[in-house]
Amino acid sequence: MAYPLSSQTDTVKPITAFNACEVNLMFGWYAQAQQYGTIAEFQKLAPGSKLLQADFTGFNQSADVWSTINGQFAANVGFRFSNKSKTAYRKNPILRLGFSYFSVTDLSNNLTKTDAFRSDTLVSVTNGSTYYLDSNVTRNYNMRHNSDQIRLDVSLVFRTNPKARWQFYGGLGLTAGISLNSNTTIEYGVSGSVNDNNQMQDYPFYFLYYEDNFTYQNEYYRNAADFGMSLNAPLGIDFRMGKKREFWKRTHLFYEVRPGVSFSNIGDLGMFGNTCVQQGFGIKVNWE
Q1: What is the 3-state secondary structure (H, E, C) of the chain?
Q2: Would you state the pLDDT for residue 183?
Q3: pLDDT of residue 215
């Protein structure tokens, strides 16, 4: 006697091409080498400036170097990719998508001039000695174009064994976005001092009054939004906080540095390029 038989074959449902596997937050610093801005360029950024109408003959000019070291914040979600057959996820690479926020000075210029002149002559009533007093007057202009940047933050990183307690990673990244607060500041200060050239130090019965004078003015101008972007190479070290408990196994602490080059499009002045470094400490939660 024959009995009809039927069988059912289980099929494995393919996984998605990629899925979220981690989220991380990083707090730290952003530093950017300064681009020298000419007086003519700052006159375009601050067209109504009275301070920039001065005669700058004889002033020494220089840009700040790495003067902008500001706080930064970054947050992103990491995604892993499936293999070709969509049966498992690869350990590398990890695509991170998120945003970064930091402040930056794109252009700067410092102009300084010191004038020295004889301001007074003193004659001792006891021995007839003559003492000369000199005055120094220093004039300083400081001008900067600043902005607060919020940028899309994308990177592709490759890591060592993700199951290990310690892991290292590196890759390539891109940020791009616009400024929330683009502005130009012009500062002007004058300081003066009197110097006896150390001629009277052997005469304690003489009292010489040194007077330092300082005056300060500043101007502030709002500018149109800037566009900024950077190409960077994220490098980091990652520490898994636990081995046994599930919560601590999924929680990581890390340090990351991103050396790179940054580009800013400032109004009608065009594009400017600078080297930059973004770095910080962070916390990551991983559930792969």
Answers
A1: CCCCCCCCCCCCCCCCCEEEEEEEEEEEEEEECCEECCHHHHHHHCCCCCHHHCCCCCCEEECCCCCEEEEEEEEEEEEEEECCCCCCEEEEEEEEEEEEEEEEEEEEEEEEEEEEEEEEEEECCCCCCEEEEEEEEEEEEEEEEEEEEEEEEEEEEEECCCCCCEEEEEEEEEEEEEEEEEEEEEEEEEEEEEECCCCCCCCCCCCCCCCCEEEEEEEEEECCCCEEEEEECCEEEEEECCCCCHHHHHEEEEEEEEEEEEEEEEHHHEEEEEEEEEEEEEEEEECC
A2: 94
A3: 82
